[in-house]
């Protein structure tokens, strides 16, 4: 699942692109009630007088019932009644994904122009940020597919139960080959959608663990997936393979979580956390790390971890008996659903201003794209998950030539990547995992930055692994 960042709209209708997942499993049917017993007088037996349930018991019963069924029907219902989403779907059908992404980029650029900002690369150069060039790959992040049982208002991947794109076996196999040949990579980071609901997830985890016992394997988990039918053994599977769980929980209040992630998500997230705790996650000395991710519920920046983590720990422990290791505080990236959310409220320029005001050169020097290789479900290679969703591929070509081009562009105050200071088109098709001989091929290449990148450099910095400053 994706944990970052924010809300708006370019949904692809199911099956419009990509390889299809098997149809999502239907929620199990409620068991049929037993037939009424014949009463001595030929009528139905009178039921024994039921004791009225106390309030707590009713709540428990409601939660138990809820947890026996999939969240998907509820998510689809919410999507149907979401006017903004329906408007976005209509725009998508009329214009297509590429045109909407270009429009979104132009809107960000207009905001920056209004603020007198030349480009992300120029600001970095002026503020003493280290050159925007890739170092050695340390993290391999795979988006295993876009299907999700949720459809959060802030999702930058625009996942939902309607998405069907998923990594195939050949692409997963190639990623494992590249991982095996890259001893410098210390982390395999699996994301989605809900990665656990994609066909290659358990294979990737099992084979990567067998390959590299010391590897950190991350599952970006939305928590509610633990309650989906067929995932009853998920917590045990993750624990057995020593997977680090990084889970979204943007607040410890039910109304905030449900508002951002959908009705019923908070209760299910708490149940998911309890299942992880029961499997040993979050317990001191267990070696099973459970980290939570906070992202803001509106057009403001994330507070520091130091400020928020103690409150999270106290609230979750006191109210629900839940323990976890660390809280990652991430900013919302002004792309996709969140960009749309901002635009509809005429708040994009104010948000870009807030990101600029909080520009932190140290965060720029720690950008995740410096050492992360991001691979899409179809095997294409990107500098980060955000560029993946914006279809901005990593720079192709020889490392030396690309680095030289990047340095020249940065010196000119333009983007180091193909988008430059005014891209949005002409980025080329990029390349796939089948077209690189090693992840080291990317070392030294310029990073494909663009006007959304200010989301990574605000405050303490924001990346998939947390703060970057
Ligand atoms: S819709 Fe799914 S992938 Fe997107 S943010 Fe929500 S849980 Fe994560
Ligand atoms: S959005 Fe830009 S700055 Fe952030 S990780 Fe991606 S390429 Fe780097």
UniProtKB/TrEMBL annotation:
Residues 1-70 are annotated as: Disordered. The keyword Iron-sulfur applies. One of its GO terms (molecular function) is metal ion binding. Residues 25-38 have a biased composition (Pro residues). Residues 143-281 form the Radical SAM core domain. Residues 39-52 have a biased composition (Low complexity). InterPro entries: Aldolase_TIM, ArsS-like_C, rSAM, rSAM_ArsS-like, rSAM_sf. Keywords: Iron, Iron-sulfur, Metal-binding, S-adenosyl-L-methionine. Residues 301-399, 435-467 form the Arsenosugar biosynthesis radical SAM protein ArsS-like C-terminal domain. This is Fe-S oxidoreductase. The lineage of its organism: Eukaryota, Viridiplantae, Chlorophyta, core chlorophytes, Chlorophyceae.
């Amino acid at each position: 699942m994706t944990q970052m960042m924010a809300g708006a709209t370019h949904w692809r209708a199911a099956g419009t692109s990509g390889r299809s997942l098997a149809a999502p499993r239907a929620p199990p049917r409620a068991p049929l009630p037993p037939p009424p017993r014949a009463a001595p007088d030929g009528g139905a037996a009178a039921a024994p007088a039921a004791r009225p349930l106390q309030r707590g018991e009713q709540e428990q019963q409601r939660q138990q019932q809820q947890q026996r069924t999939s969240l998907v029907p509820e998510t689809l219902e919410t999507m149907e009644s979401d006017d903004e989403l329906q408007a976005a779907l209509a725009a998508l059908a009329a214009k297509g994904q590429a045109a909407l992404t270009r429009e979104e980029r132009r809107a960000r650029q207009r905001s920056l122009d209004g603020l007198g900002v030349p480009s992300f690369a120029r600001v970095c150069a002026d503020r003493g940020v280290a050159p925007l060039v890739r170092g050695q790959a340390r993290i391999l992040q795979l988006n295993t597919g876009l299907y999700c049982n949720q459809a959060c208002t802030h999702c930058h991947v625009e996942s939902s139960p309607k998405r069907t794109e998923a990594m195939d076996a050949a692409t997963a196999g190639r990623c494992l080959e590249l991982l095996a040949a890259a001893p410098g990579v210390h982390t395999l980071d699996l994301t989605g959608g809900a990665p656990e609901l994609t066909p290659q997830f358990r294979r990737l985890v099992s084979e990567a663990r067998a390959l590299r016992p010391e590897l950190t394997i991350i599952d970006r988990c939305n928590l509610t997936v633990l309650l989906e039918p067929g995932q009853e053994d998920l917590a045990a599977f993750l624990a057995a393979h020593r997977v680090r769980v990084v889970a979204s929980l943007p607040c410890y209040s039910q109304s905030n979580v449900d508002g951002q992630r959908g009705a019923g998500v908070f209760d299910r997230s708490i149940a998911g956390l309890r299942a992880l705790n029961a499997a040993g996650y979050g317990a001191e000395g267990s070696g099973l790390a459970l980290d939570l991710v906070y992202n803001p519920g509106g057009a403001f920046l994330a507070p520091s971890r130091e400020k928020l983590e103690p409150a999270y720990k106290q609230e979750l422990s006191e109210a629900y008996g839940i323990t976890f290791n660390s809280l990652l505080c991430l900013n919302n990236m002004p792309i996709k659903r969140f960009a749309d959310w901002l635009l509809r409220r005429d708040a994009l320029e104010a948000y870009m201003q807030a990101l600029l005001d909080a520009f932190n050169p140290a965060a720029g020097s720690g950008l995740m794209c410096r050492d992360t290789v991001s691979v899409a479900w179809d095997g294409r290679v990107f500098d980060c998950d955000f560029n993946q969703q914006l279809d901005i591929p990593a720079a192709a070509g020889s490392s030396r030539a690309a680095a030289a081009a990047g340095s020249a562009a940065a010196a000119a105050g333009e983007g180091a990547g193909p988008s430059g200071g005014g891209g949005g088109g002409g980025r080329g098709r990029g390349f796939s995992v089948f077209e690189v001989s090693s992840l080291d091929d990317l070392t030294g290449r310029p990073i494909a930055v663009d006007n959304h990148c200010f989301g990574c450099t605000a405050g303490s910095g924001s990346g998939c692994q947390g703060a970057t400053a």
